[in-house]
Structures are given as C-alpha cells and as structure tokens.
Specification:
- Keywords: Membrane, Transmembrane, Transmembrane helix.
- The protein has 201 residues and is mainly α.
- The protein has eight helices and no strands.
- The chain is globular and about 55 Å long.
Length: 201
C-alpha cells in the first residue's frame, strides 16, 4: 500500500518539477541553510511517524487473519488514492493548457474542494492505519494512530492547506472570480455545494 502510494506520488512530483524547473514550496528556503535543515528534519520525522503502523506490522512475528477492519481500511485507502491521483491529474491537464496560464483550477474535483488531493492523502493514511490495526499485538501499538492524525493535522492546519491558501490569496485575492470560487467551494472536504462548509472558507 505504501509502495504504491510512494511510486505514484513520486512520479507525479518528479514530473511536475521536470516541467516547471522548480518546486515553489522551496522558494525562500534553499538559500537559508539553517531553515533548510529544519525543513528536511521535520519532513523526516513526518515520514517516520506516518510509517508507524507499517513498521509495527512488519515487526510482528505473526500475521492476523483478514478482518472487516482490513476491508474498511482498503476501501478508505483505495478511495483516497484515487481521489488524490485524479485531482493531481486534473490539475496537471489544466495547467498544461496555454489558455489556463495564470488561472486557478475550478474544474473536476476542484469544483468541490480547493484541496481535494490533500483530502485524498489524508484518507490514504487513515486507510493504512485501519488495515494495519488488526495485526497489532499490544495495546501501545495503537499509538500508531499518530500517523493519520499527524498527516491530517499537518495538511489541514500547518504545511498544506494554510500555505497554499496564503499563496492563492496573494496571487488571486483581488480577483472577484476567485473570491466567488472560494465562497462556493469547500476548503478541504470534497462535497457538493449543498454541503458547503462555510466556517472553513
């Protein structure tokens, strides 16, 4: 599960950098060694915490039989992976069209959420945890719930959504079209307009 996620996301990120020539997330960071070190140290800790469920399962002496929780985990994981992959693909196609240069995407999944790829990423790690949980051999191993919780909190409140929202506001904040898009579209959870999450706009 983690291998499939890593291959897909790795291919997407490498392809994106190859096309644009840079990763805007590193702008203003690479020139500051101390900040760059802290940035990558935090990334390493994030990866370690995210992998806790898998590390516990791989370290187990025996494998538990498949249970209903495994099926639920696989369903959540698969849904999240598809959601993230489709959102990334739609954004790549959108950006590749010359007429969309300088525009924000508001099509496909992006018409339901301003960050559907991040929501998919969160679902992936909840799916991994749910799939691994039946194989835990001690109560303390359930602390691995820190994996999906960390991913969810960081993406939603720290390094994911807040950063991109700030960048988008700097770029399109004066655009009435963008403000209208924000008003009608969920911030995080991809849901129809009927379920607009007004308090997260």
């Amino acid at each position: 599960m983690v291998g499939l996620w890593a291959v897909r996301l790795g291919y997407y990120l490498v392809s994106r950098v190859a096309k644009t020539g840079k990763d805007v997330r590193f702008d203003g960071v690479k020139e500051q060694p101390a900040k760059f070190f802290v940035y990558w140290t935090m990334q390493a800790v994030w990866v370690f915490v995210s992998l806790l469920p898998v590390l516990f399962v791989n370290g187990a002496r025996s494998t538990a039989p498949l249970a209903a929780l495994d099926a639920l985990g696989i369903l959540v994981y698969g849904t999240g992976l598809c959601l993230e992959a489709v959102a990334d693909y739609q954004k790549s196609v959108f950006k590749a069209q010359p007429e969309n240069k300088g525009r924000f995407i508001d099509e496909g999944l992006w018409s339901y959420s301003r960050h559907p790829n991040y929501f998919g990423e969160m679902m992936i790690w909840w799916g991994v945890f749910l799939t691994c949980a039946p194989s835990f051999t001690s109560t303390w191993q359930y602390l691995a719930v820190a994996s999906p919780l960390t991913v969810m909190l960081l993406l939603r409140y720290v390094s994911g959504v807040p950063l991109l929202e700030k960048m988008a506001e700097q770029r399109w904040g004066d655009s009435a079209e963008y403000q209208e898009y924000k008003a009608r579209t969920n911030l995080f959870v991809p849901l129809p307009r009927l379920f607009k999450d007004t308090h997260t706009s």
